[in-house]
Amino acid sequence: MTAPDRPVDELSDFAELMAHEQEFSGDRIDPAVRRRRRRRGLLITAVCLVVLLAVTGGYVGWALTAPTDPPAVSTRAPQVPVGDAVAVPTHTAAASAISIAGADAYLGEGASGTWSATGTGEPLPIASITKLITALVILDAAPLTSADDPGPTITFGKADHDLYDEYYVLGATIAPMPTGTSMSLRDALAAMLIPSASNYAEALSTRIFGSQSAFLGATRDWLTSHGLSGTTITEPTGLSPRNTSTPADLLAIAKLAAAHPAIAKIVATPAVSIPGAGALYTTNDLLGTAGITGLKTGNLGEGTHNLLYTATLDVGATDPLSVTGVVLGGSSYESVNAIVVAALESIRSGFHQVPVATEGQEIGSVSTPWESTATIVIGESASILTWSDTPIEMTMDIETPPAYRDGTVVGSITWTAGPHTVTAPVMISGSIDPPGEWWRLTHPSELESPLDAGD
């Protein structure tokens, strides 16, 4: 390289450097370049603002409209009360038994058989309860078509009249029967059953069957045909202590008698006036009281007082209960009556309304993450009819409502005891308010993600 060449190169480099400095110096930038840079900066700024506004606006829109998780609902089953236990009172009679028709759903299966029994189950003297069997055997041979059917006319002769004196000497209950007296079969049965006239029992059974031997044979056949193997009848009145039966057989006999229209009406009659026999009054002092509707007393003296009875008890159920009972071997009529009344009262009082719910009773709560709360309550008071301490079963049916507003019914509770059920509504007390905008904007984790919504 020659000496003159070097200055030329240095001058060229200097000119190029100055040109670059002029391009990047504000006061020396070319106007066209400056405009291009400004437009590019404004474009970048605009893009950033658009992106920022889009992101922010999208979040706000999502946060203000995104679904929230449903409120948390907690429920607890209300305590189910238990009724007071009831027991049939004890007594000192030799034996007793009770059957209750229409109560199996309350008292358990078998209540319509022998629900309660005390004392011996062996045969005991039944005294004048025998006359009920005599009537059933007679009507098996000479049926009456209805409760008021008089049946054939019976005319009593001198031999029948003589029975009045014979039984009077024996100290038995009797009713007038003058020679030549005529009356319907139904009236003759009434004279035998209502005042318990022994002379009518023998006279009528002899007249229908022709002899006492024939009557006793028919009685044995009747007992066998009805499966009453625990019963023995040796004569038609019950004066013999050898006329015996068991409590179980007597319950069955009572039901047969109560099912016979003519007998049922006669034994439910407290007094009657029959031509030839006069005014006659029942020996059943309880008839018409304590729900007693029949049937027959029996008495052989101290320690052998008996009562075979039927009763109808209104206990608040849909239908009354039909009670059949027997007490054997009581010390007196008064003691037997007291035993029967106490037993019936214990059955009646054993049925009671048990409160199971109170209106407004709280059984749960509703809460949200944004601290809005309400309670779940029973909408109305309820009680249920039950017997003694029969367990009460409860079921709850709670649904998710579309809105948790005050008074909204969200389900029901049902209680069951025996054949009865009662249902009460379950509802919201108080209202669940929707979350506010600030809470939504500041709690994104509590909101449903758009990705979740597609699941």
UniProtKB/TrEMBL annotation:
<keyword id="KW-1133">Transmembrane helix</keyword>
<keyword id="KW-0645">Protease</keyword>
<dbReference type="InterPro" id="IPR001967">
    <property type="entry name" value="Peptidase_S11_N"/>
</dbReference>
<dbReference type="GO" id="GO:0009002">
    <property type="term" value="F:serine-type D-Ala-D-Ala carboxypeptidase activity"/>
</dbReference>
<dbReference type="InterPro" id="IPR012338">
    <property type="entry name" value="Beta-lactam/transpept-like"/>
</dbReference>
<protein>
    <submittedName>
        <fullName>D-alanyl-D-alanine carboxypeptidase</fullName>
    </submittedName>
</protein>
<keyword id="KW-0121">Carboxypeptidase</keyword>
<keyword id="KW-0378">Hydrolase</keyword>
<feature type="transmembrane region" description="Helical">
    <location>
        <begin position="42"/>
        <end position="64"/>
    </location>
</feature>
<dbReference type="Pfam" id="PF00768">
    <property type="entry name" value="Peptidase_S11"/>
</dbReference>
<dbReference type="GO" id="GO:0006508">
    <property type="term" value="P:proteolysis"/>
</dbReference>
<keyword id="KW-0472">Membrane</keyword>
<keyword id="KW-0812">Transmembrane</keyword>
<feature type="domain" description="Peptidase S11 D-alanyl-D-alanine carboxypeptidase A N-terminal">
    <location>
        <begin position="120"/>
        <end position="314"/>
    </location>
</feature>
